[in-house]
């Protein structure tokens, strides 16, 4: 950082202090507004209450936004040729007279902060980066953009990349940080790209795809707030650990109302916890499964090929094949989903049964009311109900798929081959297993099934009954509370209960969207998009009929057996070639020394692929160590920690083949206190984590040890991509530990001296 005169720092400190004062005033004002709205209580008309709820959500969100921007509220200053200056920060601030004090980084006038260069200064003479700690300005560094105006002193301190390099060199905390202060021009162009259409951002590891996608979400919400606030923005990522890794970025940019989800979480009411073996995942991910699920539904509409007798107390009724066929044809003609077509099928059969019953009862011609009454009587007869349920059962997506995957016969009827059936056949869920039965690859199939099955009337009825019971319970509880607190005289139980309920229904857009399978988002961002299967794309596209999407990923890193080999193959079925691509080329994470190793691994993925260029060097060569047994790993990791600490390196990850995750996890956790060997938030917070490649995807660590690279290579058809992911996770140091021979791509690493 260049020397800055004390006077200059003091001037910036004064300005920044005033910004924080203003922030405090606004927080206090918004808190009071929220309190006032909440104090109005649940009384008034329905419209009053709903307006009050809307205001309460709005003030609460505004308050959260104001609290989220505390750190590095202001990080830049633009000096224009006409000698005016603008301060750039996380949000815009004005005083009560509407003078602008701070410009939101997403506003058009802030754009030169990211794009101006000496060759194209965009009207600027200087771009200043302000460094702050808490509310204190600790330093500034300047890019002088009007070279004619430079004084000799200015020339001596010209320092374009200082802020970026300082940011990249910082120790990692286990959580991704925002980059508002150092967004680079090629990234800014993506962040501010038009809202409409499908934008694909292809880029190698560490090129900032994830962080750029998140800043784009914040930019779009700011620029198109009216359009997006109602429909919401969805950000999809590969696994829960990754979601945890990125979940602070948008709040730190003042955006709290974006739904972050994995594919495994996207179907309301199901959380996928299993992952399928590669072969099963590939079958379930193939678009052919759309036909299989449709055939499985059709299989549940199959009619008997012989007549059916239904014995009642007084007589026996009989349905013949012709009647079944007519009922089914009518139901299919309705072109409705399975459950919604059921009433058509059922009505036809019931009418036939009613006519038979009338004849048997000797009642000949019935008028309309008597006919309806008799039909209703029959419908409630247990044998009739059971027969109708067998013929055209109400189905939930869960019931359909459990029925399918637990029966080789049903799978065959739905068109799966013998080999596919063997790969997919499963035991039914054990009692209480419920949610744990589902895998990531099942979720798009549930969604597909839900489309074909439609709503269940009975379910709606049941839900309404449960809601009514809950309402009654709530009133009873409210009555108790009021009696206990002696407030029964001043407030009635129903009003008290309604007030509580109102608090529960004050949902944000993201919360409402998360509960609704049919929600159409205003914009969808897919990260690590190369991992999505064809079936997953169908599910995602359903969530985004407007096709306003940002898709970020790297085809060279595809690890899933059902993932993408090209963007066109995945997207063309939906947008027919109408997608635009932006390419990121600079790697901000991995030092040049590790990237040289990664480039050789990349040749195994595809000889024509080009690794991104690193923006910095660390001077440390990646190392390799051959050990006789993996049990040597524990002491070795301990040594590495000491070494890392001595050189100021923070967090370490041991990346292992999936098949050795448990064994190596046990070795390392036994040898290193505080080490964590299960994916999830704990792995992000621990000083040492052991992760399989799939769980390390998208993450980064100061120091990385890759174990048994040959096994990673050989473990799946996508082995080379997996090894490429593994060797590109380190921000500082990379080492390789192996028992056998090193893959050729890794020869040439420095020997590690012990
Ligand atoms: N302009 C920038 N200023 C500061 N840091 C940056 C910038 N761009 C990227 N980074 C940092 O580089 C690292 C890599 O970014 P990110 O994880 O978004 O890359 P990626 O392309 O998604 O990588 P991968 O494909 O490996 O998942 C992050 O620490 C990110 O904060």
From TrEMBL:
GO cellular component, one term: cytosol
Keyword Nucleotide-binding in record: yes
Chain segments annotated as coiled-coil in the UniProt record: none
Residues covered by the UvrD-like helicase ATP-binding domain: 182-591
Binding of ATP, residues: 203-210
Keyword terms of this UniProt record: ATP-binding, Helicase, Hydrolase, Nucleotide-binding
GO biological process, one term: recombinational repair
Gene3D superfamilies found in the cross-reference section: P-loop containing nucleotide triphosphate hydrolases
InterPro entries: DNA_helicase_UvrD/REP, P-loop_NTPase, UvrD-like_ATP-bd
Origin species: Sphaerimonospora thailandensis
Designated name of the protein: DNA helicase
Molecular function terms from GO: 3'-5' DNA helicase activity; ATP binding; DNA binding; hydrolase activity
